[in-house]
Amino acid sequence: MTQHGSGPAGWRAGTSFQEMWRDLLPVGRHPDSRGYRRFAWTGADAECRDWFREQAEARGLVHELDRNGNQWAWLGDPEAGDAVVTGSHLDSVPDGGAFDGPLGVVSSFAALDELLTRGARPTKPLAVVNFGDEEGARFGLACVGSRLTAGRLTAEQAHRLTDGDGVTLPQAMEAAGHDPDAIGADPERLARIGAFVELHVEQGRALDLSGDRVGVASAIWPHGRWRFDFRGEANHAGTTRLTDRRDPMLSYAETVLAARREAQLAGAVATFGKISVEPNGVNAIPSLVRGWLDSRAADQDTLDTVVAGVEKAARAYADAHGVDLDVVRESFTPVVEFDHALRDELARILGRDAELRVPVLGTGAGHDAGILSDRVPTAMLFVRNPTGVSHSPAEHAAEDDCLAGVSALADVLEGLACT
Ligand SMILES: [Zn+2]
């Protein structure tokens, strides 16, 4: 179904939220797990990018792929400055859900249609963006597209990123038809943006517990990833006496439990969700167990306490088993306080709707909006997730709540760009 309505020159309404959602749903979905595998610069990623370009073109928006592989769909002159930008990402974690990322992109196109169909006339350029490689599922670093753009990841650093099969980021980009030598900071682009608003499915249950459909973000918790390398000695699983072993799996296993304990004590979160083992044989004692710790907390001191506690415990366990331990911090993002003026403006705009109560909440999840927040005024809207489950095929938001999110975003874009 195509919506009708007259709007700015060149623009025409696209398909509905529900139709866009249905179009995108099968892309990159694994038939067994039913989860999504939309990893950066793969075939599934390319299909998502094609979908984005088609949505832009169907609306008469100007599609642009920037030097870092982020996609933009412009209404109005990008060069005019003070643009109001909305969007999110389309890639996924391994076996991720349908909503994390795509809800923001689909809602952005739908919100644009809604506000223009209402008859609102933008006085500023508007854009929808799809940031590339947000989840970091393939190359181990989250928000590569926005980090590069913001100059928070250099081209040299990005060129060293390698996936689990030994493919480097430049090789993957090249295979997907993107020039890896073009990547790097893009301050001119950011200077043209007056506000960035990212809508995202909530990755927790705060809205469900408060009984609200939509919320505004206050801050993103500081968070990081640490790699723990436990090195022991490979040997025969049948003939090596227990007392003769230097088994790194044991110290790793104890460290996983320590992480849980430290996080619980501090009211934080800590997770070992990825592991690699060498030689990875059923009948071999491992020589190396490499585990990645992801930890987040409401403030820096708490996070430092948790990670220091986990590392201290890991060293004690490694010593006890004659195992060597290296801990490397692979990425870190400090606490992000969203722009207070923009946040207050969002609350004011959404406050006009007497039906909608919009609580302000913090989150433990990182987002492109957080990466950009010290370069551009940014804000986030969250849509209720009844179970709080995310990064899993069970991730869900009710259609009514998604549509309430679209309307809230349309209100925000109208308030920011049509005054
Ligand atoms: Zn996301």
From TrEMBL:
Record: residues binding Zn(2+) 1 = 89, 100, 200
This entry's comment on the bound cofactor is: Binds 2 Zn(2+) ions per subunit.
- The reply to whether Metal-binding figures as a keyword in the UniProt entry is yes
Essential cofactor(s) = Zn(2+)
MF terms (GO), sorted A to Z? hydrolase activity, acting on carbon-nitrogen (but not peptide) bonds, in linear amidines; metal ion binding
The entry's Zn(2+) 2-binding residues are: 100, 135, 391
Q: Which domain of life is it from?
A: Bacteria
Residues annotated for allantoate binding in this entry = 225, 283, 296
The protein here is known as: Zn-dependent hydrolase
* InterPro entries listed in its UniProt record: Amidase_Cbmase, Bact_exopeptidase_dim_dom, Peptidase_M20
